[in-house]
Amino acid sequence: MEKIVDIGFETIHLGHGSGGELTRNLLDKIIFKTFSNPFLDQKHDGSIVEFNEKIAISTDSFVITPIFFKGGDIGSLAVHGTVNDVAMCGAIPKYLSLAFIIEEGLKVSDFIKIVQSIKKAADESGVLIITGDTKVVERGKGDKIFINTTGFGEMHSKANISIQNILENDVIIVNSFIAQHGMAIMSDREGLEFETTIKSDSTNLNYLVKDLLDEFGNNIKMFRDPTRGGLGTVLHEIANDISKGVFIKETDIPIEKQVAAACEMLGLDPLYVANEGVFLTIVSKEIASEVLQLMRNHSKGKNAAIIGFVTNNHPKKVVMESSIGGKRIVSPLVGEQLPRIC
Amino acid sequence: MEKIVDIGFETIHLGHGSGGELTRNLLDKIIFKTFSNPFLDQKHDGSIVEFNEKIAISTDSFVITPIFFKGGDIGSLAVHGTVNDVAMCGAIPKYLSLAFIIEEGLKVSDFIKIVQSIKKAADESGVLIITGDTKVVERGKGDKIFINTTGFGEMHSKANISIQNILENDVIIVNSFIAQHGMAIMSDREGLEFETTIKSDSTNLNYLVKDLLDEFGNNIKMFRDPTRGGLGTVLHEIANDISKGVFIKETDIPIEKQVAAACEMLGLDPLYVANEGVFLTIVSKEIASEVLQLMRNHSKGKNAAIIGFVTNNHPKKVVMESSIGGKRIVSPLVGEQLPRIC
After folding, report:
1. Range with lowest mean pLDDT among A206-210, B215-219, B338-342
2. Could you report the per-residue pLDDT of B28-45, keeping only the tens digit for each?
3. What count of other Cβ atoms lies within 10 Å of the Cβ of residue A214?
4. What InterPro entries does this protein map onto (chains A, B) (predicted)?
5. What is d(CA A72, CA A59) in angstroms, rounded to the nearest whole number?
6. Nearest Cβ partner of B49 from A22, A54, A272?
């Protein structure tokens, strides 16, 4: 796959989605060759797998534009996004299905780049692609490429994640800087030149999640990754789901200076900007500093921070103390801040 | 769901894919309300399930146009297609994930119709929708709605489907009339008026497959559904995979008269026209008539027929004896006969 693969076409044609010879050629030369493993090699309509534990399943379609961006592309994103959703359930991701909807005219070289990026991200995340599908739609009926991945993971034997366990004074920790993914896409899309380069934070979070579960087991009460809608929307959802309040301090939320500056320049609230390498966890006050320490010692949690706590005051509301000491209610995102961010 | 659900909009907006309040509203009022079950009701990023047996997994994206057609719609098709792919592995389908990519401007009433159709087809097929995703793309960047379903089924305890088991003289049986789905779509799409109405054969095949496995167990050597690419392409793939020849008789292939006439009129070879309610099975000669009998007694196999056999002559080739006695090689479909047929 290092060299350009010759499938006899420079762009994808409708025939590549026909189910006939062209489809078989595309699959054999690119997909099966790249992802070869005993499951996929069956080349059947489906794949047969075995699990020892309960399984977490999650699905996501990726429609991001542009398809290549600083810090990743739609391929790596489609792996990280679903791997992380499975991990957020308290599971160890093992397998992914992979389905493409390609717009006629996509450059074959771009398709190969995306497939290679999927392979790399899957290898790094420790998951196998076990079954897939490829469809092609006419020019103007899609947008280059959409990808669906569905992920399967074995539940971590110590995991007992449940919002029922969340109590007053429990502590909310995030692992990393927020708003990077959304601002990277924004700058790529709009051709904005910020002083420094903002890169998407798209990455896999499953190893850090596993380490946390290995160490703290059922003392971890929740994992959640604030992707679309951002941290603000997810905190609001949590407050709603647990019928308790959430209190956060603006100055405690980790954000890179250049990202904060870019948000300010564009009039965007970083609380609603999408993330792809961020998750939050809720744990009891007693173990919070230990959890924080473990996260900071991990490559995916170096900038972890305690951002707030759960309270019985203002149930179902998120209240944020601002940098100048004022308090405001954080509402959920209404409408669309940045369409097609993932 | 019988009455029109009011989500405050007549068409889908980009904000419905934001992950914010509009998304939540759409999900709560339409998706969660329709599919409510203990798995989905967790409203988490994923769902946790348990299986007793090995699992078969299959994924498919559906991009059919038009989205409503005689005999079904993109919603029922997205259920049947994946349920059948899981069944073809020798498994009992249990769960589906469900992911929408909606083009901005889709009528909410059409979306609701599709969701209801998914619900009905899922109920009839005995599967639960356990997790999902909804994305919205701008007008002109999609085509009304694309759906991905990924299906999970428990392997039937008696199933031992493997092409390794296929021997010379094994018999090939199909369950029903071919070419109906493709010709139904064709007539809808082109506004063709055939003398009588051709309906898509889109339906679930999992119950008939289960009955066959209950009765004949590991004597069933293969199931395969010839969807895209049609019967001809699938037979060619099988011949290739088993490195043996396949011999079929044109007059033995079940096809409705009006479908055959429509194909002739449009110059289409029914062997390459898509099916959605057809599967073929390969069994030893000794049990072929029993298998045929069981199929004919089942609502999904009334028109079952033995269409040919496996031979050591002409390995990797499919040879068909035509209605007038001549013989021709059936090549796989090259290019695209009917784009976006599923």
Report:
1. B338-342
2. 999 999 999 988 887 777
3. 12
4. HypE, PurM-like_C_dom, PurM-like_C_sf, PurM-like_N, PurM-like_N_sf
5. 20
6. A54
